[in-house]
Structures are given as C-alpha cells and as structure tokens.
Write a structure and sequence with these properties.
The chain is an alpha+beta fold and about 725 residues long. The protein folds into four domains: about 200 residues, Beta-Lactamase (2-Layer Sandwich), CATH 3.30.450; about 100 residues, Beta-Lactamase (2-Layer Sandwich); about 90 residues, Helix Hairpins; about 150 residues, 2-Layer Sandwich (Heat Shock Protein 90). It is about 40% helix and about 20% strand. The protein is built from 18 helices and 27 strands. Strands 14, 15, 16, 17, 18, 19 and 20 form a seven-stranded antiparallel β-sheet that branches. Strands 1, 6, 7, 8 and 9 form a five-stranded antiparallel β-sheet that branches. Helix 1 runs parallel beside helix 8. The protein is elongated. The C terminus is likely disordered.
Length: about 725
C-alpha cells in the first residue's frame, strides 16, 4: 500500500510537473507572439502619425500662404476637412494687432458677437492643467506694443470655445512659447501638450503669415514682419482614429526629456490572474520606437496585457492536464501551431501589402499631388493627383526616377537649383523656390509646394498654379526675368569692352610711338651740345600732347564699363539652354522659325559663369534667327546637348544659307561681321569664343552638308565616360 501510494504520489508529482512545464511553454510562446504583435502595432501607429503630421503641416502652410478666405468659406472648408481628417480640432488665421488698432479690433468683434469682446490674458495656476472655463484666471490684457488675439476659429459647429475669442496667444504661458519660436524662425512650431477647451489633450501647430514685401529677420521684434499666424489644433484622442489597431493595446506619446506622456489609445481591459502571473514571469509586452520628429521630442510607446484578451485559461488547463501523458505529441502539435502562427503574422509579403494599403489610403486623402521617393530619387508611392499631373499610370511611375516621370525645374536658375537633392542631403524641409515648374505631356506647369524628408527618402507635395498668374506671382516672375536680363546685359557690356580694348590697342600705340620719337629727337639735340631751346621745347610739348591723348583713351575705356571677372561655379548646361531660350522667346514670337531641342537627360555639370554661358547661347541663337530670317518660308533652328569623354558638347544649327567660304576662316576675328552693313559690330562671335575658352572649352563653326550653318562648343567635365569629343576643329562642309 505504501509503495502504491508512493507510486501514485510520484505519478501525480510528475503529472503536475509536466503540466506546469507545458503551461510555462504555452505562456512563453503566447507572450513572445504578443510582443511581436505590440511592436507591429506601434510601427503602424508611428507611420500613421508621421503621415498625418505631414498632411497637417501641408494644410497649415496652405492656410498661412493663401489669401484670407471669407468667414463662411473657411467654416465650410474646415467642416469638409474634418470629415477626412477627424483628428483636426480647430483651425484658423489669427491677426497681428498693434496697440493703436486695439480699440477698433475690440469694437469690431463686439459688433460681430453682439456683446463686449476684449483682448484678454489667461494665467492658470502653476503646474495645473488649464481650467479654461474658470473665470478667475481670465483678465483684460494690459497695454502692450502688439497682440496676437484668438479671432478666427473653424469649424464653428464643432468648436465649443467661443468664450476664448480675444485670448492673446503671444502672452499665454502655454501657447506663447511655440508662437514666439515660430515668429523668430519664420517656420513651423509645435506646442507642448495641453488641455483643449473640450477637455481633451492635444497639441497646436503654428506657422507665421509673412508679409509680402518684407522678410523676418533675427534683429527685429517677433511679429514686426508678420500679418499674423495660422494655427491648427490636433486632438490626441483622435490622432489614430480610423486606424485598425487591436483593442487591447494602449498607445501613447512619451517625452524623451521628461516624464510626460500623451495618451492616444487607452483601452480599459480587465487583467486575469493568469495574465498577471505571465506578466510577473516574462514582463508586459511593450515597444518603444525612436523620436517622432526633431521639432516634436516625443516617441511612440505601446503596451498590452501579458496575454491577449481572447486567451481563455480554462480550456488550456484542461487540455494540458489531459495530454500530459502524451507530452511529446502535445509539444509537437503546439510547436507546429506556433510556427504556423508566426509565419502568418511575420509574412513579409502580407506585411508589405498591409503597409502599402495604409500608405495608399493616406496619400489619396490629400488633395494635392503627393509623391514619395527614396534616396535614389525613385518613386515609391504616389496618389491619383500626381498620376493625373504626369499623365501616366501607376505601373509605369512606381520604381521609375522622378526626373523621368515628373521632372522638377526652376525657371531662370543660375546655379542648377535642385531642391530635391538639398532635401535628401541636408534632411530638412525645403520649400520650392519661386517659378518652379514641372515638365508634363501637356506642357510646362508652374507649381508650388515643399519637400519633406521621410526616413531615407522624401515626401513631395505639389500644388498646380493656374495657367494665368495674376497678382503677386506674375509680378515676381516678371521681376526675376528683368533682373536676369539686366545681369545678361551687364555681362555683355563687360565682354564687349574686353574685345573692344584688344581691337583699339593700335590707337594707344600711335601716341606711344610719337612720344618715343619726340624724346629721341630731344635727346639727340642735347647730346650735340648746341641744341636750339625752341626745338627742344617743341619736341617736349609734342610729347606731352601725345601723353594727354593716350590718357584720354584710357580714361574713356575705364569710364565705359567696370571690369567683371568671371565667376566659375557648377552649372547645369541644360538649364542654361532653357534660360537662353526663354530670353529669346520675345524675338522668336513674330518669326517664321521652328525651334527644336534635343537635350540629353544625363549630363555632367561643368565649371562656368552661368550668366556668360547664357550670353554665348543667346548670341548663337540670335545669329541663327538672323540667318533663317533672310530666307523665304519656314526656317528651323536646332539646339542639342550631349555628353562625351571630354565633357559636354552643345550644338546650335540652322537651316539658313550657311557661312560664305571666304568668311568662314575669319568668322571669329574682332570687328569682322558677315552681316549686311550696319547689321552688327562684329564682336558677338569673338566675345563668345573668348568666354568659352575662359571656361577651358573651345568654340567651332562649320557649314552643314544639307545646308545651313552649325556652331558647336565643348566644355570639360571630369570623370565622365561617353563617346570621345573631337580633338581637332571640324572641317567645314561645302556650301
């Protein structure tokens, strides 16, 4: 009996040990899968937050840069935006009010709201959340040099804080810090977390509304160069609304410098005893991701119970007790089930498909053309607006370089502006410069927008400008064109002086030769010993007269124009060609000449002065226009660029009568012109040849076999392998 009892006791102990071991294995496997589940949910939440902050930032930029909308129009837009972006709590444009305008401002608001409205301050108790509705902490603002009162709030039907109208945002201890930081930097700023008027936690994004005629400088007062601010308040409780996250996972934003959190998802789930035991053994599953944004020092943290909410302990206890005798089979079954579940949840293709669906939904929710590119400038994703602008399909666009699908250019760029390269290299937000445009199948389209770094790539948001640019946009474009033409004229004038100086050197040699003759005569008479003073005086007076003549010539040249040294920088030859063609557009408008361009898309940069290089191209194009203008019917001018071992080759050819055989050898001589009498000074080609040679290149001319003339120049560019450039001057073909 004792042995039987001992045997039963040992069997029971072994049974209990096997059951406990199997339960520990089950709990460990479930905890590990729950940890991966939490990590995936945290990464999904972070991707959604980044995309929604980027969309809000783009919307805030449009709100700050657009002209003020009527009151009713803003409310309609805001109500429409809240349907697509429910995390936006309130938005509006708040004006700058100087001290002298305070009385008129308060009177206007009082008439609008049918009761007295004053500019007020709100000072809550230190260390407490803002009790906005407590009248004890509100007071009329004292006299200040300027104010930024809360004036415009939209949408009206979703915003219960009408009582806050008149709050001086700049003097508020909660919001004022971010407002001043935004005004000093003339850029976006985000407040610390605060309590909104409806009791929810959230943050406010602020961006200044700059004046058109002035720029913000560091040595001026915060708001002296602004018309006001644009702000958008986000509710943290709605930042993840519509995102399919598990119900038992809590998500929050944790400050990286102090113990402060912003709850985003906080489910209320009861924790079972088995879950508490699993948490004590293995810890609660959680995930902490890197910093969300440099200007918003918060990171995403997620946490879940040790066991998922659908974990039922009773069946597991019964199953492990019944199958303890078949431990090997049970372990094999559980391991196979665990392996299948892990493969299902960690399937990279399924994860990529889910991520792609989320990205597509976010991109399509934005009203502008949006593209995401990687570090190699290849398109990763784009929305329907971008496909419509590029007139292509998603299958052709994704994976291709943006320069092939929707190339970005800056009109009249002198240093090869490439905002996308700046964004990828410097990892900062880059607004598109004025006169940016994209080449589309429908032609040139002017755009505005900004480029935002996104990991190892960039997010590009583009807004198409209307075809007719009234107001400031067209005025700024005309001013830039005028400045560029003035720079070209100054460069042409300086180059003309250099060539004219070489052409009139003989004018200075004549007085110098006469001075030498007069002095030799005077010295000879002095050496004879009985020189006639009158003759010596005559020789010296003649020498002085020639000195005056030479000085007069030199002073005339110096007063004509100041010397200009070429500024050699890295230049995109194709951009210089586009600029020259744009400057020649007015001259071509009333001609019967067709212009063809064949520009290679993969050219190296060259070292040259951008204005002088455009001067050479414009001179060659004008010469081609003169040649084709002398013939009847339609003429043709072709401008092409290509790469070779030596660097870059540019050709300008025409369908004119060609260069006469007796003129071709002297075509680059100073003051020699092949045009009719009075048609030119004969310096254009000489200046062009001198400029190209100062860049280390060479300029050639020849006649084409099919008729017409061709001018070609080559500029060096290191480390570029293509068919070699010719090393000798091309022989002219028969005319």
């Amino acid at each position: 009996m004792v042995r039987l009892a001992r045997s039963h006791a040992m069997a029971l102990a072994l049974w209990a040990a096997l059951w406990a071991g199997l339960m520990l294995l089950v709990l460990a496997a479930t905890h590990r899968e729950q940890q991966a589940h939490v990590r995936q949910a945290a990464e999904t939440a972070r991707a959604v937050l980044l995309a929604r902050l980027a969309a809000t930032e783009h919307l805030l930029s449009l709100l700050a840069n657009d002209a003020p909308a009527p009151h009713d129009t803003l409310h309609v837009r805001a109500a429409h935006l809240q349907k697509d972006l429910p995390f936006i709590y309130v938005m509006g444009r708040q004006p700058y009010v100087p001290r002298a305008a305070r009385a008129g401002y308060e009177k206007s608001l009082s008439l609008q709201y049918g009761g007295p409205v004053r500019i007020r301050d709100f000072h809550p108790p230190p260390g407490q959340q803002a009790p906005w509705r407590d009248a004890r902490y509100w007071q009329v603002a004292p006299e200040r040099d300027y104010y930024l009162p809360l004036t415009q709030t939209a949408p009206e039907r979703h915003y219960p804080a009408r009582f806050m109208v008149g709050l001086d945002l700049l003097a508020n201890p909660i919001i004022g810090t971010a407002v001043r930081r935004s005004l000093r930097s003339a850029a976006l700023a985000i407040t610390e977390p605060l309590t909104l008027s409806n009791g929810e936690r959230g943050v406010i994004l602020v961006e200044p509304i700059l004046r058109r005629q002035s720029r913000l400088t560091d040595n001026r007062r915060d708001n002296l160069a602004v018309d006001g601010i644009a702000l958008i308040a986000l509710s943290s409780e709605r930042l993840l609304s519509g995102v399919p996250l598990p119900a038992d996972i809590s998500v929050r934003l944790a400050h990286t410098g102090r113990a402060e959190t912003i709850p985003l998802l906080a489910p209320a789930t009861a924790e079972t005893r088995l879950a508490r035991l699993s948490g004590q053994l293995f810890g609660a599953p959680d995930a902490r991701l890197p910093l969300l944004r440099p200007d918003f020092p918060y990171r995403v943290e997620a946490q879940a119970p040790a066991l998922p909410g659908n974990f039922e302990a009773g069946p597991w206890l019964a199953a492990t007790a019944a199958l303890a005798a078949l431990l090997a089979a049970a372990i094999r079954t559980l391991y196979a089930r665990y392996a299948r579940a892990r493969r299902r949840h960690n399937d990279p293709q399924a994860h990529a498909a889910r991520t792609r669906r989320r990205e597509d939904a976010l991109l399509e929710g934005v009203g502008d053309a949006v593209l995401i590119v990687d570090s190699q400038r290849r398109i990763v994703a784009l929305n329907a607006r971008a496909l419509e602008m590029a007139a292509t399909t998603r299958a052709l666009a994704e994976g291709a370089r943006i320069d092939e699908v929707l190339p970005l250019h800056v009109e009249l760029a002198t240093h090869g502006d490439d905002p996308l390269a700046d964004c990828l290299t410097r990892q900062v937000r880059i607004p598109l410069p004025a006169h940016a445009y994209v080449d589309t199948p429908a032609g040139k389209q002017y755009i505005e927008g900004r480029l935002t770094p996104l990991g190892d790539g960039a997010l590009i948001a583009l807004t198409r400008l209307p075809d007719a640019e009234p107001g400031d946009a067209r005025h700024r474009r005309d001013e830039r064109l005028h400045a560029h033409a003035s720079a070209y004229a100054q460069s042409a004038r300086a180059s003309s002086l250099a060539e004219m100086a070489s052409g009139i050197a003989h004018e200075i040699n004549q007085p110098l030769s006469a001075i030498n003759s007069y002095n030799d005569a005077a010295l000879s008479m002095l050496e004879d010993g009985d020189a006639d003073p009158e003759l010596i005086r005559t020789a010296l007076e003649g020498s002085l007269a020639q000195v005056e003549r030479a000085g007069h010539i030199v002073r005339g040249l110096r007063n004509f124009v100041a010397a200009r040294r070429p500024e050699l920088v890295s230049v995109d030859v194709n951009q210089a060609v586009r600029n020259a063609l744009l400057l020649a557009t007015p001259e071509m408008r009333f001609t019967t000449t067709h212009l063809n361009t064949r520009l290679s898309s993969a050219l190296p940069r060259v070292q040259a002065d951008p204005i002088q290089l455009e001067q050479v191209l414009l001179n060659l194009i004008r010469n081609a226009l003169d040649a084709t203008g002398s013939q009847t019917g339609w003429g043709r001018i072709t401008v092409s660029s290509e790469a070779c071992t030596g660097g870059v080759r540019v050709r300008v050819s025409d369908s004119g009568p060609g260069i006469p055989a007796d003129v071709l050898p002297r075509i680059f001589d100073p003051f020699y012109s092949g045009k009719p009498k009075g048609g030119g000074m004969g310096l254009g080609l000489t200046i062009s040849q001198t400029l190209i040679e100062s860049f280390g290149g060479a300029l050639y001319a020849r006649n084409l076999a099919e008729g017409g003339a061709e001018f070609m120049f080559e500029l060096p560019a290191p480390r570029f392998e293509e068919p070699p450039c010719p090393t000798t001057t091309p022989q002219p073909s028969s005319t």
